[in-house]
Design goal:
heterodimer; A: 442 residues; alpha/beta; 4-stranded parallel beta sheet; 54% helix; B: 875 residues; alpha+beta; 8-stranded antiparallel beta sheet
């Protein structure tokens, strides 16, 4: 057992206050994807809070049950929606992860991988794009098919990583100039294009831009924007996340000063949006940034949220397809954007939307969770795929990068023929179809 | 912990099914209440066989087992206060079958309540018990605690929906009690296990009956200046004969918190808030809601809001269901109480509880299930405040003393567990607790199943009355309970057999040498509480007399008998259920409390005159259908209901059995207000009905509000005509129940009368394979899965072969066949029961505890519990 008192966030009055809010009623259990697959109390939000308190009071060590089960949390925050007492589980799990990270002495390999991913790749979009090019070569050369047909299958983790690769983009949008509004101009917005999203799903970004154009917005692309910091936060590297937050705030402020104020800052990935909206909280102790951060957050909108707030230009082209919508946890449970994407989908002629029976449950993506906890993630994913397949949908609509990758992999695992698309891609198809006056049957 | 034991467990199960890591175990020390205790280990069974292994292992090594489901319990029921191993049912969570024809489901104990709700609604069926924790609670937990919820006033609690259970007993044996048919000839261990808080067995499978969801629902919210006023409005609504689906109340404190949190638009100046749902067909809904609104306004309700759409209704309900969680936003901890009082005592209970809390300087707020008198005070706790816990507990105790004084129960739906254990003695005296503990000893002689729960330590005692001066003999008509008790005590000592009979006098019942105990002088109506919808009467009172008293109040007891002289005691101990149980529940569902005189002279009163009560074992239901072999029912408290506005039947003549069966089953899928769906074959009614007894007639009876009845009968007539049924005859004076009474009545006195029972869905399967019935009058009760038949002119041999064949077919479908009555000529030649319950051994052991000399009603029930068995003798 470790020392009795662990320094750090779990010794603060805030932790005490937040953790005491839990009245252990258990209503979160079935909302928790890890509990649903394991049936173990320690894999539930209530169990994890109990472990946090046990660790904070020295009844449990840091290595052991506490570490195992905190690590296994997806941080999807579905439990926050389910909780009648308003427990801020997201804050609690961040404190726990920070504590683990502060006390962890990772081996050289883990440190190398972290350095590579968090320092050398994610904040550098150009490097990510280069990586994407290499991987595209791998896909196109037939090597991918070869690897998938190897007599000796890849180890589970590598197999997962391999399976997560979507069809990679062949070209990237041009961000050097603002994109003009089409038709009657309604305003100007800035676009946060993200790191992984841009490198691996640039087509989604291109569709987002076209949809905004069709809705009468001029879109600006502030220079020097970077990764939102979600991955760093997820592994307890709060310091690094704060750095990235400052860089992003500076980038958007500078652009606004240079190009004039924006009506909104748009992003299209639920997970990134959730972190971007927490910048004010992240920078609450930094007097030189707190106000700027609040200002930044007040302008932030998820694309779904934005379009339904301002009122969408009706998409008139028909997209005939049975679709289901797989909520991004961080869009649903953190940003609480639930009705907007559904309303947008229903606005597209020809779309038949079939709800999942458990839309509140995570798909198991959760940042790098699917690579670190492959077994649990796959169990969660398989459950999600069963739910999806029961709808008979040909298109699986998502609104987040990680979910997109994960569902592409899920389709492959389930041997399904469904296609994974971002919601804006469907809107885009509808607008394009209306223009060419040809319907796009799926 | 014994290492050898753990090693032996590991050899039986996989390592993924066992947790022993001390840190991993920490999270199992608590449920949703406040008591704590760390288990020695946790086991996750994946199958019934695993559970048997676990129980055998426990009995070999003397290890305590504590069942756990979702851990949402509110009384510490799943907390291992003194160690032991938790059996965690979370992985045994399948919904095995939803039967859309017979309206039933089979589930594993770890299945989530809400999942069953969703899955049944998806096929247009409905499982009504809806505890507020339903999102995470398991059905096994619901059964263990006999869970309630807001819909109990109209729809009842968990026990009213459980028809069968499979369980693993302490010794590792696996038994089925009840099943998918109804009224098995065995002691009602289904009712006993339900609400037993995991102390009698490990439940491995649950069979539930389902109903149809209401055609429509309307929600009304109203404000009142005081809780008393709101209470009077509730009483007025009930007195008018309306049966709202829910009647929920909040006091001002909670209303304000909820308004801050969920913004449903509650006037925060109001002293109380009432939320009511009514359900029914569209035409009936508007009428009902306007009648409710009129009564509410007449009783000082204001700011009435009738939800205009489902979103608005959902917002109102979301506010109500958030009450508990919203409290946590106010204070980090609270003691949540769960008392039930007769509804008319609600205001008084509330006023006194306020005074109690004031005296201890504590803050309190209330939500109530006002329709059933169940109130939940939340006493707020702030950590770090000195001496507060002590004050809160004292206030809690005073509250429980108060509700018991007012005739209520210390727990309506949360269970006793650890939390309320010290208070069970407020309700039950040592003799009563002793009788319950005898049941525990029968099921779990070594006390290894959830040990220490429910019953306070050393509270039991076996107080047997002194010897009586003169021993009753011949025909004995005790005049009082005390009289009956001392007489029975003497007879037990003398080992003299006793035959109990009701007000009927049937000399044939008397066997030589036994005393005939006739309850005809114990016939007082003790208490009639029309506002609280209950009546207490002695067992010798005739059902017909009780019904005529109730009729004067516009009420009735949903019970019937083919014989005018039937006594309450006789009716309930033979458990003869009319077809209208499909609408109102069976006899066992009407029993709230009972006074039992045991064979050794002990007198116990079990249950309370409240519809929600989970304190201790439900011994009253255990007596129903026990044929007087466990004790003498001395008096009985029953719930009753408003007389239906109308009762109308449709009669469809059918030519062939097959079509009659198909129409009957098709009709069942419309049954929202139906009170009987029966198919009669050559059944002659005593009065002229205009319906020919020849061939087949399907009778579909509906009752309740006129608009509901009309809407339902229209739908049935339309649907059946599409299936080729002819135009039905609409009749007001004859119902399906009259056909049932005719089948059992004097017309067929000379016939061999049988009741076959199978799962309702299996009826066609059963009947179409039986040629014995082609010439006989018979009656099919579709909702109950019963076939009543009357075989004429039977010789000993042909009777026995007919019974054998009909019985074999029923048994092979998981049902049974009993002989209800038989002509004098063949008496003694047939096995009346022909059923071997898995629990025969338990029945014998219980019988031996409660009737140690075996004097009561020898030969009246299953052969095996004593030596000689006779016919069912429902009279």
């Amino acid at each position: 057992m470790n020392s009795l008192r662990i320094p750090g966030p779990m010794q603060t009055p805030e932790f005490e206050r937040l953790s005491q809010q839990c009245i252990h009623c258990g209503l979160c259990l079935q909302a928790c994807p890890t509990y649903v697959v394991s049936g173990q109390e320690a894999d539930s939000p209530r169990g994890r809070i109990a472990l946090m308190r046990a660790a904070a009071f020295g009844q449990a060590g840091l290595e052991g049950a506490f570490e195992t089960h905190i690590d296994l949390c997806l941080a999807c925050r579905s439990c926050e929606t389910a909780c009648p007492s308003g427990v801020q589980y997201g804050s609690l799990v961040e404190m726990a992860r920070q504590t683990l990270s502060d006390n962890r002495h990772p081996g050289i390999l883990e440190r190398f991988i972290r350095w590579l991913a968090l320092d050398q790749l994610l904040p550098h979009i150009e490097r990510l794009k280069l990586l994407a090019r290499f991987l595209q070569l791998y896909q196109r050369s037939g090597l991918s098919r070869l690897v998938r047909s190897l007599p000796v299958p890849l180890p589970a983790r590598l197999r997962t990583m391999e399976g997560l690769l979507p069809q990679l983009p062949s070209q990237y949008p041009d961000y050097r100039q603002p994109a003009p509004a089409h038709g009657l101009k309604r305003g100007r917005v800035a676009f946060f294009y993200g790191c992984m999203q841009e490198a691996f799903l640039a087509g989604v970004n291109a569709a987002t831009i076209r949809v905004l154009q069709e809705n009468g917005y001029e879109i600006h692309f502030p220079e020097n924007q970077t990764c939102c910091g979600a991955a760093s936060l997820h592994v307890g590297e709060t310091g690094q996340a704060i750095e990235l937050a400052r860089q992003n705030i500076d980038a958007f402020m500078k652009a606004a000063q240079k190009e004039g104020p924006f009506e909104a800052i748009i992003n299209n990935a639920g997970g990134c949006g959730a972190v971007l909206k927490e910048y004010a909280h992240l920078l609450r102790d930094d007097p030189s940034y707190v106000e700027k951060a609040q200002n930044f957050v007040s302008q932030l909108r998820d694309i779904n949220e934005f379009l339904s707030e301002v009122g969408i230009v009706p998409p008139r082209g028909e997209v005939r397809a049975r679709v289901t919508y797989s909520d991004s946890c961080h869009l649903r449970h953190v940003q609480k954007v639930i009705a907007a994407p559904r309303d947008l989908l229903r606005a597209i002629p020809g779309i038949e939307l079939v709800e999942l029976s458990h839309p509140e449950l995570c798909c198991g993506s959760a940042g790098v969770y699917n690579i670190v906890h492959t077994e649990t993630a796959n169990a969660i994913l398989d459950q999600k795929m069963r739910d999806i397949q029961a709808t008979g949908a040909e298109l699986i609509v998502t609104t987040n990068t990680g979910c997109h990758f994960q569902l592409v992999y899920g389709v492959q695992r389930a041997g399904s023929r469904a296609q994974v698309v971002h919601l804006v891609e469907l809107l885009d198809r509808s607008y394009q179809a209306a223009k060419s006056n040809v319907s796009h049957p799926e | 912990m014994n290492e050898k034991a753990v090693h032996s467990l590991r050899s039986r199960l996989s390592s993924r099914q066992i947790i022993t890591d001390p840190e991993e175990l920490l999270v199992y020390q608590i449920d949703a209440a406040q008591d704590r205790g760390i288990p020695d280990g946790v086991i996750f069974p994946n199958s019934t066989e695993d559970v048997c292994q676990i129980a055998r292992w426990s009995s070999q090594h003397g290890i305590a087992l504590i069942s756990r489901g979702g851990g949402t319990g509110l009384s510490g029921g799943a907390v291992p206060e003194h160690g032991g191993w938790i059996v965690e049912f979370s992985r045994l969570n399948r919904i095995l079958e939803i039967d859309t024809v017979g309206h039933s489901a089979v589930v594993e104990p770890g299945a989530i309540t809400q999942t069953l709700d969703e899955r049944t609604r998806a096929v247009d069926l409905y499982y009504p018990p809806d505890p507020s924790s339903g999102r995470a609670s398991t059905l096994g937990g619901n059964v263990a605690e006999n869970a309630g919820g807001p819909h109990c006033f109209k729809y009842g609690v968990t026990t009213n929906y459980i028809t069968g259970l499979e369980a693993v007993l302490a010794d590792g044996s696996h038994v089925r009690v009840g099943g998918r048919a109804l009224d098995y000839p065995e002691y009602d261990f289904v009712s006993l296990l339900t609400g037993s808080e995991g102390t009698l067995g490990l439940i491995t499978r649950i069979m539930v009956r389902l109903v149809l969801p209401p055609a429509g629902v309307k929600t009304l919210m109203a404000a009142f200046d005081t809780v008393e006023q709101a209470g009077r409005a509730v009483s007025a609504v009930i007195a008018s004969g309306l049966v709202p689906a829910t009647m929920e109340m909040m006091d001002q404190k909670i209303a304000r918190i909820v308004e801050d949190f969920a913004h449903p638009g509650i006037p925060t100046s109001a002293g109380a808030l009432l939320i009511m749902d009514v359900d029914g067909y569209p035409d009936s809904l508007d009428k009902q809601i306007s009648e409710v609104a009129r009564l509410v306004e007449k009783h000082a309700g204001f700011d009435l809001r009738i939800a205009q759409n489902s979103q608005e209704a959902e917002r109102i309900w979301y506010a109500r269901k958030s009450a508990a969680g919203a409290m946590a936003r106010l204070a980090p901890a609270y003691l949540l109480l769960d008392g039930t009082v007769p509804r008319s005592r609600l205001a008084e209970t509330l006023e006194t509880t306020n005074r109690i809390c004031e005296a201890y300087s504590l803050e309190v707020g209330y939500v109530f299930h006002a329709g059933d008198g169940n109130l939940h005070p939340f006493i707020l706790m702030y950590p770090g405040e000195e001496g507060q816990v002590g004050r809160v507990l004292k206030a809690g105790r005073e509250f429980m003393e108060l509700v018991t004084r007012l005739g209520g129960s210390i727990t309506g739906e949360h269970g006793v567990g650890i939390e309320k254990r010290p208070y069970l003695s407020l309700m039950y005296n040592p003799t009563e607790l002793g009788a319950m503990l005898e049941v525990k000893e029968v099921f779990d002689p070594n006390g290894k199943l959830n040990p220490g729960k429910v019953f306070p330590n050393n509270a039991a005692e076996k107080a047997v009355p002194g010897p009586t001066s003169d021993l009753p003999a011949g025909e004995w008509e005790p005049a009082s309970i005390a009289d009956a008790a001392s007489g029975l005590a003497g007879l037990t000592r003398a080992g003299r057999p006793v035959r109990i009979c009701g007000s009927t006098h049937s000399p044939s019942l008397n066997q030589s040498g036994s005393v005939l105990l006739n309850t005809c002088r114990m016939n007082q109506l003790r208490e009639l509480a029309p506002d609280d919808l209950y009546v207490t009467a002695e067992a010798g009172l005739r059902l017909s007399e009780l019904q005529s008293v109730l009729a004067q109040e516009g009420k009735w007891l949903p019970a019937a008998s083919p014989w005018s002289e039937t006594s309450l005691g006789g009716l309930f101990s033979t458990n003869l259920n009319a077809p209208f149980r499909m609408k109102y529940g069976g006899l066992r569902d009407q029993v709230l409390a009972m006074t039992i005189v045991m064979a050794d002279g002990r007198v116990i009163r079990v249950g309370r005159p409240v519809v929600k009560n989970v304190a201790g074992y439900d011994l009253a239901k255990l007596m129903v259908g026990s044929f007087g072999t466990l004790g003498l029912i001395a008096d009985i408290t029953l719930k009753f209901t408003a007389q239906p506005q109308c009762r109308t039947s449709l009669a469809f003549p059918a030519e062939r059995l097959q079509e009659g069966l198909a129409w009957g089953q098709a009709g069942f899928s419309f049954a929202r207000v139906a009170s009987a769906i029966v198919l009669a074959h050559q059944v002659e009614l005593p009065t002229h009905s205009g319906i020919s007894p020849n061939g087949f007639t399907l009778i579909y009876t509906a009752e309740g509000r006129q608009e509901d009845v009309d809407a339902e009968l229209d739908g049935v007539a339309r649907a059946l005509s599409q299936q080729g049924a002819p135009l039905p005859l609409r009749i007001e004076d004859i119902s399906g129940t009259d056909y049932w009474a005719a089948m059992l009545g004097p017309r067929y006195h000379e016939s061999l009368r049988l009741r076959s029972a199978v799962a309702p869905k299996d009826l066609p399967n059963y009947l179409l394979s039986q040629s014995q019935l082609s010439a006989a009058p018979f009656l099919v009760d579709f909702a109950s899965g019963f076939v009543y038949s009357a075989l004429d002119n039977v010789e000993k041999q042909s009777a026995s072969s007919s019974v054998d064949s009909l019985r074999k077919a029923a048994l092979s479908l998981g049902g049974y066949l009993v002989v209800l009555d038989l002509p004098e000529t063949i008496r003694g030649s047939l096995d009346a029961w022909g059923y071997q319950p898995d629990t025969l051994e338990l029945m014998k052991r219980l019988k031996a505890k409660w009737d140690p000399a075996g004097i009561l009603n020898r030969g009246s029930f299953l052969s095996g519990i004593d030596e000689i068995a006779g016919p069912m003798n429902v009279r």
